[in-house]
Amino acid sequence: MALFKKKRLEDQIAECAEQYKENYYRLAYSYVKNVDDALDIVQESVYKAIYSGKSLKNQDYIKTWIYKIVVNTSLDFLRKQKKNIVVDEELLESFDFGAIDDYEDFDLQKALDNLPFKYRTVVTLRYFEDMKINEIAEILNENTNTVKTRLYKSLEMLRIKISDEEV
């Protein structure tokens, strides 16, 4: 009987992953800015979800639970990359003989990239994934008031950035 339930949960996770794969991909891509890395993160997240399905307390929240796994997997990936990037940047700078491009165009993606992770995640989930505040709070393991505050503050930071760019 337990094997049947486990198989059913795995099927539900697979169906959810298939249904929302573009959403999970967009979220991962918003962190890593690389097509292949984002695909790897989504694949790894689905694997983690299937492997640790027993930790899901309520099967009604599979979608948001996988979002949470995607966010954590993306952050783990960035932490690992950050260790490697420091050396790679130094090496690349030593070979850089070209002129520096200095463009001042305002771009929403550029402004979002400049937000700290905790603010960017809230904006991405709310406006690009069209999630409700309580869903975001569950994904991030935060209080709904904390999520509201971060959303408000991130919008303020974006407004300030836009104002600075227009001047």
Automatic annotation (TrEMBL):
Protein name per UniProt: Sigma-70 family RNA polymerase sigma factor
CDD domains: Sigma70_r4 (cd06171)
GO MF annotations, alphabetized: DNA binding; sigma factor activity
Family membership noted in the UniProt record: Belongs to the sigma-70 factor family. ECF subfamily.
Single biological process term from Gene Ontology: DNA-templated transcription initiation
Keyword line: Sigma factor, Transcription, Transcription regulation
Domain of life: Bacteria
Domain RNA polymerase sigma factor 70 region 4 type: 107-158
Stretches assigned to the RNA polymerase sigma-70 region domain: 18-83
Organism: Defluviitalea raffinosedens
Pfam families: Sigma70_r2, Sigma70_r4_2
Keyword Ion transport: no
